[in-house]
Design goal:
This protein is mostly helical and 243 residues long. Helix content is 86%, strand content 0%.
Length: 243
C-alpha cells in the first residue's frame, strides 16, 4: 500500500486526473447546493477584488473596508426592494400592456400592418404565452433563490472577515500527509479563479459601464420606463447571448 502511495505521489499526471474526477464526483453529490456555492464564490471574489482596489488608495484596516462594503450592499438591497422594485414592477406591467395594446391595435400604417401580419403568421401569441408560462414557473422558485442569495452573502461576509485565518488553516493541509492531494486541489482552484473569476470580473464591469451609458442615453432621449430598460440591460449584460 505504501509503495502504491509513493508511486501516486510521484506521478503528477495521474494525481491530477484522479483528483479532478474526485472533484467532479463531489460537486455531483452537492449539486443541490451548487447555486449557494457559486453565489458565495461570486460575492467573495468581487468583494475581495474591490477591497484590493480600495486598499491601493486608502490605507485603512482591511476588515473595516469589508464591513463598510457589506453595509453598503445591505443598504442598496433595502432601497432596491422597498423603493425601486415596486417601480420596476409597475414599469414592466406598463410596458407589457403597451406592447399588447399596440399588438392588438396596430393602427392604419400599411407597413405596421404588414409587420403585424407577419407576426400573426408566425404565431407570436403562442410564443408569448409559452414565455409567460416559463416566467411564472421561474417565479415560483424566487423564494429558494432568495434564501440562497442571503446565505451566500452571509457566508461570503464571514469568509472575507476571516480570510487570513481561512488561508492559514487551509495551508496546513498542504504540509500534511495528504498534502499532494490538497496541492492538486489548490492547483485546480487557482486555475478556476484565474479563468472564471477574471471573466466574471470583466463581465461585471462591462455590464455596469454598459448600463450607465445606456441609462444616460435613454434619459437624454426621453424614454419612458427607464428603470425597467436599464435593469434589462444590466441583467442581459451579465449573461450575454452567443452570436
Amino acid at each position: 500500500m505504501e509503495e502504491l502511495w509513493e508511486k501516486f505521489k510521484v506521478n503528477t499526471g495521474l494525481q491530477r486526473l484522479l483528483i479532478f474526477a474526485l472533484l467532479i464526483f463531489v460537486l455531483y453529490l452537492v449539486r443541490s447546493m451548487i447555486d449557494l456555492i457559486l453565489l458565495t464564490f461570486i460575492f467573495t471574489f468581487l468583494i475581495t477584488r474591490l477591497e484590493k482596489v480600495i486598499l491601493r488608495w486608502v490605507k485603512v484596516p482591511r476588515k473595516l473596508i469589508v464591513i463598510v462594503l457589506y453595509i453598503l450592499i445591505v443598504i442598496f438591497l433595502y432601497f432596491a426592494f422597498t423603493h425601486y422594485l415596486p417601480i420596476i414592477i409597475g414599469q414592466i406591467v406598463s410596458t407589457f400592456n403597451g406592447v399588447m395594446k399596440f399588438y392588438n391595435n396596430p393602427g392604419n400604417n400599411d407597413f405596421i400592418k404588414y409587420v403585424m401580419s407577419l407576426f400573426n403568421d408566425s404565431n407570436v401569441k403562442a410564443y408569448i404565452n409559452s414565455g409567460l408560462k416559463f416566467i411564472i414557473g421561474s417565479l415560483s422558485g424566487i423564494g429558494s433563490i432568495g434564501i440562497s442569495f442571503f446565505m451566500a452573502l452571509i457566508l461570503s461576509l464571514f469568509f472575507s472577515l476571516e480570510q487570513e485565518r481561512v488561508v492559514h488553516f487551509s495551508s496546513k493541509f498542504l504540509t500534511s500527509k495528504i498534502g499532494p492531494v490538497f496541492r492538486e486541489i489548490a492547483y485546480f482552484g487557482k486555475k478556476f479563479v484565474g479563468t472564471f473569476g477574471v471573466v466574471l470580473e470583466a463581465q461585471f464591469l462591462i455590464a455596469i459601464v454598459n448600463t450607465v451609458l445606456t441609462t444616460i442615453a435613454l434619459i437624454a432621449m426621453g424614454f419612458p420606463q427607464v428603470l425597467t430598460l436599464s435593469t434589462m440591460v444590466f441583467l442581459l449584460g451579465l449573461f450575454p447571448l452567443p452570436v
